[in-house]
Amino acid sequence: MARNLGPRKIGKYPIEFKAKAVALSRLPGLEVRQVAESLGIHPFMLSRWRKEAREGLFTVSGGQLGLDAKQVAELKKSAPGRAREPYLERGADPAKKSYPVLLRAKTEIYAFLEQNRDQHRISLLCRTYKVTRSGYYGWRKRRHSPRKIQNQQLSARMAAIYDGSYGIYGSPRVHLALKAEGVRVGRKRVAGLMRRMELKGRCGRIYHSQRRVSVHRFFNGIPNRSLEKIPTGPDQVWVGDITYLKAGGQWRYLAVMMDKYSRRILSWSLSARKDSWLTLRALNRAVARRGPASGLIFHSDRGIEYGAFVMQRRLAQLGIVQSMNRPEAKMTDNALMESFFHSMKAEGMHGRTFPDQQRSRQAAQ
Hints:
Layout: H1 15-25, H2 32-39, H3 43-54, H4 69-78, H5 95-98, H6 106-116, H7 122-128, H8 133-141, H9 146-164, H10 171-180, H11 187-197, H12 213-218, E1 237-247, E2 250-259, E3 265-271, H13 276-290, E4 297-300, H14 304-307, H15 309-318, E5 321-324, H16 335-349, H17 357-364
Helix pairs in contact: 1-3, 2-3, 6-8, 9-11, 10-11
């Protein structure tokens, strides 16, 4: 804060005085506050004059100072504040942005001093941050607490687990992996350490599709039967859906069939076209593998690929009862497939590039 040098000068100042003040403030090693205090004016006033000079309201030249090199050196020496500290150069002052917002505890200040001890003297840093040198050197000699040592060991092991998952695992899975290794640690502690290390689990993005009223009206004859029956065994309720994959710079379409009871993937089909033949191939492969009995419920979204007549005829031939989402666009009706696609893309697709459809097919397997 500026020192109180008595009442400030008020009134109008000549252009020559303003130009001289601005020229002084532009000297290297001097600040606006220091020049304003030496001239007996308010720093805000000098800042306004500097702005007026930049806007061209008056011109400033070095000859307007009227000071020789010795007088400028004396001004720098007598100016208060950081100009008297030769060890804290302007632009390298750690106090401007680090205190008091970032460094609140003394341990944080000591750690900051440890990082900057090669650039500045410890005595100056301790005086700047208002800590004692004995406290700093005592902190250096003090051994780490058992909790901190344990956190360091945990962080190293968590980083290895995270890297082993190719950046997929979040804190719940890292916690389960540590638990499987016999490490007893709390879930919130794992989450806090991962936040400190800036480790985040990979997640997929959500795409919003535009609602079409005509499609809902077309499928009004197919109700949502999956909500009526909770499966008690396999091959009672199947669910299916389609998702988008990119291979060779082009979109490919993946249709998947899942058993709702066991959540086992029954079949899948990959194609460059999104049509009813794509979903029909996935259905036929699931039927050939499981051979379900009549009365099985097959649930899907209200897409034309599942509502086409060729799909409806095949389901009727197999004795499978068709079910579709509610027309109110309830995404939770087919939540199992949405969850599977989210995990599949986040863990197996995102961050990887597939040059052709064959490579994407291998990744899906």
